[in-house]
Write a structure and sequence with these properties.
The complex is a heterodimer of chains A (296) and B (266). Chain A has 296 residues and is mostly helical. Helix content of chain A is 73%, strand content 1%. Chain B contains eight helices and nine strands. The chains are: A mainly alpha (296), B alpha/beta (266). Chain B: It holds the Pfam family ABC_tran.
Amino acid sequence: MSEAGRSGYVVDAPLAPPTATQGLLEVFRRRYLLKLLVRREINARYSGSFLGLIWSYINPLSQLFIYIVVFGELLDRGRTEQFPIHIFCGLIVVHFFVETFNAGTRSIVRNKALIRKMALPKEMFPVASMMVSLFHVAPQLVILTVTVLIVGWSPSAVGLGSFVLALGIVMVLGTALALMFSVANVYFRDFASVVNIMTNFVRFGVPMIYPYSIVSERFGAAAEYYLWNPLSNAVLLVQRAFWVGTTEDPAATAATELPDNLIGRGLLMLVISIVLLVVAQFVFRRFENKIPERLT
Amino acid sequence: MSPIGSTDAYSPDTSIVVENVTKTFSLRYHRTFKQVTVAKFRGQRTKDEFNAVDDVSFTVKQGESIGLMGLNGSGKSTLLTLINGTMKPDSGQVLTRGRIAGLIATGAGFHPQLSGRDNIYLNAAVFGLTEEETKDRFDDIAGFADIGRHLDSPVGNYSSGMSSRLGFAIAINVDCDIFLADELLAVGDKPFKRKCMSKMEEVRDSGRTLFYVSHAAGSVRRMCDRVLVLENGRLGFDGDVDEGIKYLHYDSDDENNDDDELGADV
């Protein structure tokens, strides 16, 4: 009875471990699955909601309103030109990063139903969280672009390049941190709270509600350390892309409000973020084996 | 892929290799800071481990149908998750050839908020199907699951029977090379059990490898040509079906209720 290959059934595949082993490359290879996960996540977020996707416009607009009133009218009092646009440039970066980091950290625990029963690269989930957050950048970008066009801004290649570079930094950095903390959160759910606290610092650690010139005034040479924050660079790059062009004298603004060699720094931050992503993949690989059994 | 030189050591019709596989679970955790501190202070152990699968080795040839038996908690589902790739063994290695599909521990990995329809696409994608392949099979899947208009309501609202119907329908239709069935008939009704059994016979006769977990001696006898028995994570028996069933003493209470051979699958 136990003769093999009853009807000459031959499997044309190598004998290999059934666990997916290529990490982020595997995620890229299985883009279709990633697409489904991202779509599912977006649908789930607005399921049962009457306004649906409109909320992704209302949220940033309401935050913008608060910042303009509190920081623009009460605190900054006209020191910075086009302050609402200045803030909004920062808000895009901060939102994107915070959402990626928070949702990414929770992603594996939230998807335990799938992870405990199906073999799929677990890196899928933090990456999907990043993509969902990226998706939400679009409406904010629409609001910003319309605003700056009304104010009289014209697009430039350098500006576009800066924006793309800023997005790249946040995408890579956000994915790296989400990877690391998503697996940490499986071991101790405390990490979701830690991440929450960390993201509180992000809001105020970037030149969003205050101009960069204040930092360089106060700290002088020590402002260099402030710029070691990749997110500060990303915010400044977005300001380079949209805000600088809306001021009275863009060249003067760029000279006082932006650090020297902004693009070069941005590229360096991108490289650092990529290195961090490689480290994160390594850490993830190291600890992912115990994920299914810890997800109870 | 992986740096395993011994792959060549197996003949081309080898379907599954399990080599000295051990999987260790922690029995309990003192997870909060307070619990850990108190336990350490009292000199209690903060961790206790056991081997859910303990140094298990066997090979399966393509087309064999294996009945995996054992008492509750003997490690059957854990062994299946190791073969399916959801978990990695702590030591030893598992090798498989081709696409694996199936159900682990009654029910598939569904997303409760998504509709049955979306879950079909998602699950099929996890098994490695493309969008077109899923579209081609969609009617077969929906037809087999036969859950009617519930297909468009969230899976979270399904009864356990309905979701395992859907899970089975997807898994059986993805053209796998290895099919894993873990107590899948436990919650189905009788007509559905019959339908599953005949579908699995079809799968078996087409030359795919079948891994069937069941407590029902009758259905194992009908489906399988080899039995593995797990005892506390160790491989207690590997061989002929009737002997395996005898080994488990499942044969004695099986004789008088022939009609229940499917129904006893709990």
